[in-house]
Amino acid sequence: MKQYTIVFAPEALAQLESLSDYIAQAASPEVALRYTDAIVTYCETLHTMPLRGTRRDDIRPGLRITNYRKRAVIAFSVAKSVVSILGVYYGGQDYESMLQLDEDEFS
Question: Exposed, middle or buried by CB within 10 Å (0-12, 13-18, 19+), for 102?
Answer without folding.
Answer: exposed
